[in-house]
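hi! just following up on the protien thing from before. the input was this:
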Amino acid sequence: MRVLVISDSHGAVFDSHMDEMKKYGDFDILVHCGDKYKDAQKFADKLNISTVYQVPGNCDYDISGKEEILLREICGRNVLITHGHLHNVKLNIEALKAYAEDNGADAVLYGHTHGAQNDFIGNVLYFNPGSTVFPRDGKPSFGVVEFTDSEIRGRIILLQN
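and the predicted 3d structure came back as:
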C-alpha cells in the first residue's frame, strides 16, 4: 500500500508539484496532515487518488472533519494522522509519542513543524513530510510511506521547484 503524505500546503497547489509527485508512481491513499487540509482534494483530483484522509491544522479555520484520525486498515497497521499542534510538536514530540503509545499506533503521520522527519522511535514510525511550500529546513517536500505485510518504509522527497 503506497501512501502520499502532504502537509502544510497553505493553499498552494502547483502543477509543477503534481508533475514531480507523478514521477513516483501511483498512490493508493493521500494523507494531508493539515494547514489548508482542504487542499487534499485538489491534490487527489490531479493525481487520481480516490482515498483521501485529511486533518485540520492550526491555520485551518473552516473545520468540518476530525482533528485526528486513527486508521486500522493499512496492511493491518494502526496509523495515527494528526497535524501535531495539539501535541506541541514544535517543542518536542514527547506528548505525541505518549499519545501514539496510548492509541497503539504503528505509524504517526503529522505536520506543523514544516520540517521533515522519517524516524523509527522504538517500533513506531514518526513521519512528517515537511511543507510543500514553506519549509523550515531546506527545500519544499512531500513524503511516501509504503506499507507491506512485513514492514513500514518512509521516504522524504524534495521538490525541485
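Strands lie at 2-6, 29-32, 51-54, 68-74, 77-82, 107-109, 116-121, 124-129, 141-147, 152-158.
DSSP finds three helices and ten strands in the chain.
cheers
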